[in-house]
Write a structure and sequence with these properties.
The chain is α/β, with parallel strands linked by helices. Helix content is 43%, strand content 22%. The protein is built from 20 helices and 23 strands. It has an 8-stranded mixed beta barrel, surrounded by 5 helices. It has a 7-stranded mixed sheet with strand order 1-5-6-7-2-3-4, sandwiched between helices. A 5-stranded mixed sheet has the order 9-10-8-13-14, with helices on both faces. A hairpin with a 2-residue loop joins strand 9 and strand 10. The longest helix has 31 residues. The radius of gyration is 31 Å and the shape is globular.
Length: 609
């Protein structure tokens, strides 16, 4: 970049190359100091650079029609954030227009700027500025100023110093921008544009805390599109996506001011209603239910009439937890579905339903009606089966096997999930041993999901280890230290303390279990989990796979995950593969294994009555 330099300056000892190198090293130490957060780094670097330049003030400002002050160090106390002026009134206008560095050592002697407010009103006599680029975009300027006139010329080294600092700020701002975009992507549902479940849970926690402080009531509703599976089965997933987008738009258009909606998962939506009691909440959600009668969904196959079932829970103070509120809404939704669909059930009228739901789960556990189905995983290069995943099913008294989506969340809300995990884990380990005794290769891996509630129970982890040791000691196959058992934790599960988690899982790792990180890409903290945990397998989030062929950005994200995993020696697994074209594309991208309906649906080892 060429410099537009004029006049003389006196930058003191900073003007020698040796001192410039010292200052650059000092700035680099600040930039890489992990004890400082990003704002502290910026403040420290601006202060250090101001001293190195023998200046009084350093400003980082964004330019468009205005000059907007973003960050600063100001020994004069004149500037503060937020601060904004019209761009043409700022000296930074010249830097922005020419896109070149500018040094004005004595504003009082400069024909263009001696009447400028920076000099006449604020008392500054020196200005040095340079552009800040964020990628290919001009973000703004980095400026240094002081009140005392400079006496020696601006050297090329001094300007290079300022431009290097501006380049660092540009890189920092680029990374911040990318991080915010990824965070927004992680908290948004790509299909409907609504906040996703992670975002809803975070915001619900904030609303809950605010309600506890203010005493205001609120209600939540979990809404489910009735018989949506039939839409996918009859018309395909593209039509299903069309229906979901329009269904979300109908609900969104009916929202009151202050209320909000999120996609909860699959065909479920979460709705938050502020300042309502039970009857008011029921009336609002029932109005949403009725809206579908007036808005048929347009599809390539003609109009479809949707109906909606919803469960509502009201918080009016007291000792209810968020988990309890969600469990109440889930139980009420179950009652709405079980009662014939196309209806709204308020929890206070569904108390028996909640107790029945809990009783049904407990009864199923006691009667050993929580059973395991297994879904195959294949090597995408050879097509050979290499692993399977144990998936929970609840067999009702009528013989119907309910998938996990119908009862796992309720089990979590009712604090029974650890017992489900215990049952599924026992079945999967015993099946693994039986397969080995029958001649199966120990290289075939068996994946088992473990919830945080299970891992937090030291007695259950100990029982799992004892069971594993007991069964493995009787196996016909002699294994090395690595067993064909892999436990999955999902990136959707918020982990606040990685050291604590490692203490919980270390006995399992020492026993020969391996760790898989499930749902990778479902949240903005994915890479933190990968960096902190000893992961052997990485399962790429299903929504990324579903959108892979139609979204180049997602394809690039998956490729980055694959490349990183390969360098780290981690086996990548793509979930939710539903067709041969997607499987082939993933193979070409270097994904190791695949799982999904294209290779096989979950199957029971023996017929379930």
């Amino acid at each position: 970049m060429k410099n537009h330099l004029s006049g003389n300056s006196d930058l003191g000892p900073s003007s020698t190359p040796a001192n410039l190198q010292d200052h650059l090293r000092a700035l680099w130490r600040l930039a890489t100091d992990r004890t400082l957060n990003e704002i502290q780094k910026i403040d420290a670097m601006l202060e250090a650079a101001t001293a190195a330049m023998n200046m009084e003030t350093a400003l980082v400002g964004e330019v468009d029609e205005h000059y907007t002050l973003s960050y600063l160090f100001d020994a004069t106390g004149i500037f503060q954030t937020p601060w904004q002026i019209a761009l043409h009134d700022s000296i930074s206008h010249a830097v922005a227009i020419t896109q070149r560095s500018l040094c004005l050592p004595d504003l009082s002697q400069d024909a263009h700027y001696r009447e400028h407010a920076l000099h006449t009103q604020l008392g500054f006599n020196v200005y040095i500025g340079t552009p800040i680029w964020v990628g290919e975009h001009l973000y703004g300027t980095l400026s240094f100023m002081r009140r005392t006139v400079l006496t020696t010329a601006c050297s090329e080294d001094n300007i290079a110093f300022v431009e290097l600092l501006a380049a660092w700020f540009g890189q920092f701002l680029l990374q911040k921008q990318q991080s915010e975009e990824l965070k927004a992507l992680a908290l948004s549902d790509l299909l409907t544009g609504l906040p996703n479940r992670r975002a809803a849970e975070t915001r619900l926690s904030e609303e809950f805390a605010r309600s506890q402080r203010s005493g205001e009531t609120f209600a939540i509703a979990i809404c489910d599109l009735d018989r949506f599976k039939l839409v996918n089965d009859h018309y395909g997933h593209e039509t299903g996506d069309t229906v979901l987008r329009q269904a979300a738009a109908i609900l969104l258009a009916q929202m009151r001011d202050g209320d909000w909606i999120a996609r909860w998962g699959g065909e479920e939506f979460f709705i938050y209603l502020h300042k309502v009691d039970g009857p008011q909440a029921f009336a609002v959600i029932d109005r949403l239910r009725q809206a579908y009668a007036h808005h048929p969904i347009a599809t390539p196959h003609g109009s479809l009439d949707l109906t909606l079932s919803a469960g509502v829970s009201v918080y009016q103070g007291g000792k209810k937890s968020i988990a309890r509120i969600l469990a109440e809404a889930d139980s009420a939704l179950y009652e709405a579905k079980n009662g014939g669909r196309d209806r709204v059930v308020l929890h206070q009228t569904a108390q028996r339903g909640l107790l029945w739901h809990a009783g049904e789960l407990q009864s199923a556990l006691q009667d050993k009606r929580i059973v395991t189905a297994y879904q195959i995983m294949v090597d995408l290069s050879s097509g050979a089966p290499v692993a399977d995943e144990a998936l929970a099913r609840l067999v009702g008294r009528t013989g119907r096997a309910a998938p996990a989506a119908e009862f796992i969340e309720a089990a979590e809300g009712l604090h029974l999930i650890h017992l489900v995990d215990q049952s599924i884990t026992r079945q999967a380990i015993m099946r693994c041993a039986a397969r080995l005794d029958a001649g199966a290769t120990p290289d075939f891996a068996h994946f088992i999901n473990l919830s945080p509630q299970f891992l937090a129970r030291g007695d259950l982890v100990k029982q799992l280890l004892e069971l594993t040791q007991q069964i493995c000691s009787s196996c016909a196959v002699t294994m090395d230290s690595v067993k064909p058992l892999v436990f999955e934790i999902t990136e959707r599960q918020y982990i606040a303390n990685f050291d604590l988690l490692m203490r919980e899982i270390q006995p399992l790792l020492d026993s020969g279990f391996r760790l898989a990180l499930d749902d990778f890409g479902s949240g903005y903290s994915s890479f933190l989990y990968l960096a902190k945990l000893p992961v052997s397998f990485l399962k790429i989030e299903g929504w990324m796979i579903a959108n892979l062929r139609h979204n180049l950005k997602i394809r690039d994200m998956i490729q980055s995950i694959v490349d990183l995993s390969r360098k780290q020696g981690i086996t990548t697994i793509a979930e939710n593969i539903e067709d041969a074209d997607t499987a082939e594309l993933l193979r070409e991208m270097g994904v190791n294994w695949g799982q999904g309906y294209h290779f096989g649906r979950p199957q029971f080892d023996t017929p379930t009555a």
